[in-house]
Design goal:
This protein is of the alpha/beta class. Helix content is 58%, strand content 9%. It has a 7-stranded parallel β-sheet with strand order 1-9-6-5-4-2-3, sandwiched between helices. The longest helix is centred in the first third of the chain and has 61 residues.
């Protein structure tokens, strides 16, 4: 009888345990699904922050649940037959509690039990309440990001506008602050005016009074692009040779840098000096004057006993606004303009862009401040002129070269004169409106900067500190001194006579320095 009661009681308790286990699993599943729905609404950052708290709470609840089940089961069984079934019931309780735990811990990401809700449910309720705050935080971050992006865009646009305005202002200003910069330096020596004496010597030459001595070698130094102009200084050299003077045209590559030509001229001067035993008088036109001055500056110790004087004719000693305006960095289309000039000078002419760059104001300032011209030890003359901008100049044609024609089978009359006529018939003069181009450039410099010029070099930039300045009142453009014009006026001096007067004055200045 007692045995049957025990068996019935065990069956009853086992059925109750199954029901309790199923209810517990169902409640746990429903709670798990609800919690997972709330978690999906919360932010991922909150999950990481509360994960440790959830794990600790779930562990404490499982431990208390296991202990409570075992205790209640042991108390219930002890009320009927405590000594007989206590150990076995405890084993069953342990096994079922562990089985319940394994079924409960299916999702390790949210190990939660609904019984002790004070430990687990409260954090998720807090998460739900924190959701509007997270939304506000997200909205604030989005607004700040939009504000930063707008600020950066406005700042970049502002910098772009300032850069364009600076380029436009730099382009419009051009060389206004650079023209005549040598005259604004107090440490530079002053110049003297020798125009009156020059005009006297020129008038004497026009009357046939030639005073240029044969005790010197006269070296004519051509300027930029002279290698492509066969008639550069040709008329002047022929004029001097007819007077029995030793005159040479320097065979240098004018389309290279100033320092390179300075070395070439040093070698040339030394060859002339050792070959003739005479001192050398230098006359440089345009960039040729800059090259000659550079040779004296850099190699003065080697040339001071060989060079007797230097005349700079229409020379951009201080720089030229034409070169500076073309190659100035920071102005509108500066890179495109430089690429065009590099193509013209380097590709077509086979020259060096530094030949033009060395004539800018920045390069001239750098060179003059680095090297000093020995103006106190050698006579110097600065010759500059002003180009005519009259409308009639636009029709003036300049003879710059000869074009060789094919051989023509003309009959010969057996004398030398007829041979010369046939030879001359094979050449055709090449003329271009070079004077017209100089007039346009001079008008541009006059209107933009208010400066008088010969078309390429302003009068103030052509004056070398410490020199004797010659500035004739006659309108002469930059190319007139080296090329002959098709409009010849017998009542006025030509370029060869001008060069003779300049060198005669240079010889007088040299004698005066020798006496002093």
């Amino acid at each position: 009888m007692n045995m049957s009661l025990v068996i019935e009681s065990l069956g009853f308790f086992s059925s109750m345990d199954d029901i309790f286990d199923r209810l517990l699993i169902l409640a746990s599943y429903i709670g798990h699904r609800c919690i997972q729905f709330v978690e999906d609404l919360a932010l991922r950052e909150a999950d990481r922050y509360l994960e440790d708290l959830v794990n600790i709470s779930a562990g404490q609840h499982l431990k208390s649940l296991r202990h409570g089940i075992c205790k209640s089961f042991s108390e219930g069984s002890s009320s009927s037959s405590k000594p007989y079934i206590s150990d076995r019931d405890l084993e069953i309780c342990e096994r079922r509690a562990s089985g319940s735990r394994d079924e409960f811990l299916v999702d390790t990401r949210s190990e939660i039990v609904e019984t002790n809700s004070s430990h687990v449910t409260v954090p998720f309720i807090c998460r739900g309440l924190m959701l509007p705050l997270y939304g506000l935080q997200f909205a604030w971050r989005l607004a700040m990001s939009c504000w930063r992006s707008s600020f950066l865009y406005v700042r970049r646009a502002h910098l772009r506008v300032r850069s364009i305005a600076s380029r436009v202002q730099r382009t419009l200003r051009g060389s206004s602050d650079d023209i005549g910069w040598l005259q604004r330096i107090p440490s530079m020596p002053s110049v003297n005016d020798g125009t009156e004496r020059f005009l006297e010597l020129l008038a004497g030459i026009r009357k046939g009074k030639h005073e240029l001595p044969n005790s010197f070698v006269y070296l004519l130094i051509p300027g930029l692009f002279s290698n492509h102009s066969p008639l550069y200084f040709v008329g002047t050299k022929r004029f001097f040779s007819k007077m029995g003077l030793a005159c040479h045209i320097a065979k240098i590559h004018s389309e290279v840098s100033v320092e390179h030509n300075a070395w070439e001229l040093k070698q040339y001067i030394e060859e002339l000096y050792w070959g003739s035993g005479k001192h050398v008088m230098l006359l440089g036109h345009s960039k040729g004057g800059v090259d000659a001055a550079a040779a004296l500056c850099i190699y003065w110790n080697d040339l001071k006993d060989k060079v007797a004087g230097l005349a700079l004719v229409q020379c951009p000693y201080g720089g030229t606004p034409v070169a500076s305006d073309i190659l100035r960095e920071g102005q509108v289309a500066d890179k495109e303009t430089r690429r065009i000039m590099e193509f013209l000078i380097c590709k077509l002419i086979k020259g060096d862009i530094r030949a033009l760059e060395d004539l800018t104001y920045d390069k001239r300032k750098e060179f003059i401040m680095k090297y000093k011209l020995p103006a106190e030890q050698i006579p110097l003359i600065s010759f500059h002129s002003e180009a005519s901008i009259a409308p009639g100049v636009l029709a003036t044609m300049t003879h710059i070269a000869h074009a060789e024609l094919p051989w023509l089978p003309l009959s010969k009359f057996g004398n030398e004169e007829s041979d010369n006529i046939v030879q001359a018939s094979r050449q055709m003069p090449v003329v271009i409106p070079l004077s017209a181009a100089m007039a346009v450039c001079a008008l541009h410099l006059q209107l933009r900067y208010g400066e008088k010029s010969d078309g390429l070099v302003t009068c103030r930039d052509a004056e070398v500190p410490g020199s004797v300045v010659v500035k004739p009142d006659r309108k002469l453009d930059h190319a007139w001194m080296v090329y002959s014009s098709r409009k010849m006026n017998a009542s006025e001096a030509d370029a060869s006579e001008m060069c003779e007067a300049i060198l005669t004055l240079l010889v007088e200045l040299g004698k005066g320095k020798a006496l002093n």
